Amino acid sequence: MATGFLTDTTVCIGCKACEVACKQWNQLPADGYEFTGDSYDNTKQLSGTTWRHVAFIENPKKKRLTGDIDLVALAEDVTEPLPNGAELDALGRWAFMSDVCKHCVAAPCQQACPTGSIIRNEFDNVYIQPDICNGCGYCVPACPYGVITQAPHDGRAFKCTLCYDRQVDGLEPACAKACPTNSIQFGDVEDLKVMAEERVQELHDKGYTQAYVWGTPEVGGTGGIDGNHSKFILMDEPETYNLPKHPYLPQEKVKGGVVAGAIAAGVLGAVVALAFRD
Amino acid sequence: MSDTTRQDLTQGNGHVTNGRPETSHHPETDPKREDKHYYGIPPIKHAHWTWQIPVYFWIGGIGAGTHLFSTVAQLLGHDDPALKRASRYTVLVTMILSPIMLIWDLGRPERFYNMMRILKLRSPMSTQSWSLLIFGNLGGLLAARQAAEDGLMGRNALSGLLIRLIPERLLSLLALPFGLFVGFNTGNLISATSVPIWARNWALMAPTFLASGLSTALSWLSLVLHLTRSGEPKTLRALHRAERATIVIEAGLIAASLVRMSRWGKPLFSKSVAPLFVGGALLSGIAAPAALLFSGKQTRGKSILSSLLVLAGGLAFRFALIKAGRISADDPEAYFTFASDRSAPQPEDKV
Fold first, then answer.
1. pLDDT, average across residues B61-87
2. pLDDT category, A3, cuts 50, 70, 90?
3. What angle do CA A242, A247, A253 make, to 5 degrees?
4. What Pfam families would the database entry show (chain B) (predicted)?
5. In this complex, do B202 and A256 lie within 8 Å of one another by their Cβ atoms?
6. Total number of domains constituting chain A
7. With a CB-CB cutoff of 8 Å, which residues 138-197 of chain A face chain B?
8. How many alpha carbons fall within 13 Å on the CB side of residue B189?
9. What ipTM does the predicted assembly reach?
């Protein structure tokens, strides 16, 4: 059985309980107090010490907040003209997305790993064996989603284990357990796929026709990656959430590169041989 | 935002420091932010590689090219003791330094031996480790025999035994494919990543690295032979001709790579990399030595100068590529344009 996540961004409230639960369960060190000034999200990105990251996509409306402001109307996003010529900025759209390792079907990090530290475990998750990793860092630029990262002061690469230890004991991963709105769902990937399709259909029926599933072989799991075990329901273009639309498997071209190198070796060998002719 | 309104900022009337409005990187408030991404945070992570990796690419290329030249000379029956000596010891030194550089770069250097845990043909890092191991050991055996022949181990029974037991011709021929692999696979090592500038050039990266490695190796041999005033005239003539041909091939491959990289090759011409790439690799590493190699009569001084230029240019080229890769990976726009349509390598693409 292959397990994975379905992260439904439409019900995410940005509480970051998943980030905290992940840090606590996996005993990950703090990343320091840094304020980006970009948004209320100060975690910024996934890293070797942050395996869940809630992105805050803050899109305010164009109109400026002026005049006498009715805060209730503001919160309810009322659009009719207000007394005294007050204009509404409203809250615009404030979207959240809890990002995590995509657990690719054909994982670039696993193919890049020269030590065999990165494996697929019995739950078909991409798992780093920390006792084998020697910190070569080659998996880091290989990842098409910027997930896997070397932890400073440790040297080795780390990322989401999909709570391997909890799964062994029959528990769901800490982030899915902590999620109060069930935005993060854990289960068999086949079940999750059906759930994702049903949810997108439901959203389409309600008029949110922009909803779609990211992490399929068509979107987000492309170019030889063959889809992801962590799927996401998104409401905007993938780039808005810092995700690529059509990533590719970097190792797809290793064979071609070796052939090209061998041809070059033959040509250069011949050039050297010709140079000896008087 | 206190006194400054958003309109002010979009019209450029905000607090301006260093020519840029003082704003957050907010998609709405920052007039420079119209493209789609998440506050400009890189969507992929760059490689951590510091100076050890480009230096390894450089010395590994010299080792591989040197072995190619000396083995071809040997196969053609051209026996020049000075050339043989120079190349055997060069291979030995480069193959001692290469693993030191690579292990130094590891996050957990004491676990370097885990590289030998498995062989993974899909991972250029794995195949590179194995080919280095094989090429390094064969090169070491050849250097040991050379040392015995040169009397560096004294005139004793051991030297005699080494000379008798190490089959020189067979070992150099056996080491050749592994040496060449070390030379070109460094190109595949960087192109098998998600970094746009490297991945885009997957078909030409390995040939470019091998050509550049060979040109630095030829220059190194020519430098050593000229400085020690050794080497037969025929060797020097062959070296000179090979240097000329290789530098032309290298220039052609770099030009073709730039065409292939197209818009994703921009980091090579950015402020921090252009001095290395244009000044170091192109002008002093290719144009200047090419002018020296193709002009008038060859003199010892000109050869030494062009060799030094090629060697420095080769090192600058490797640093430029690694630095450009970091800029490319840190640029959300580059990655998203690369990974949004069919610009990225596709499974059905062929050499």
1. 96
2. very high
3. 145
4. NrfD
5. yes
6. 2
7. 138, 140-146, 148-150, 154-157
8. 27
9. 0.89
